[in-house]
Amino acid sequence: MFRPSSLAAIALLAVMAFFGGTALAAAPASSPEASKPLPPLSSGGARPVQIFDVAAGQVVRTLANSAEFQAVARQWLHDVQGMSPNFTPDDRCGYVFRIPLKEVRKVQLEKAGFEVQEVFLFYCRGKEPEMLAFDLKNKPYLLRVNTDVRPFLALAGFEPKS
Q1: Please, which residues bridge with residue 105 across strands?
Q2: Model pTM?
Q3: Residue 41: helix, strand or coil by DSSP?
Q4: Pick from 46, 79, 81, 95: most CB atoms within 10 A?
């Protein structure tokens, strides 16, 4: 059965642990700080693109957040198919690709829309990728995405082990 609150909490904790906390690691949803939007990304340099190896438990590559990576992230957002009722992060294989967006982007689902500043694509060879995105108030969205990760992998010069 799909239980968004428990899956969202697991995914949020996993992402925060994976990337050492980000602007998304603000406050618990019940606190007044949770309703505050994230700070703008234009406050200096762009945050980097990162590849986290789940099995190794660490970031294995950090890359400059170029216009090409921004185009990849826009494509991922375009390829969103809806909410993911079966979000299944697997700690035995795969990677998490993080791309902070230089501009806020709108995601439109069938029954709702929201704006995001950062996307996390969960990738495990042989499985459909899944995306975690947070709205501007840090509410997590677990999304089905039908996308080709090869352009990202080529751009990152990265060959997944598993």
Answers
A1: 116
A2: 0.75
A3: coil
A4: 95
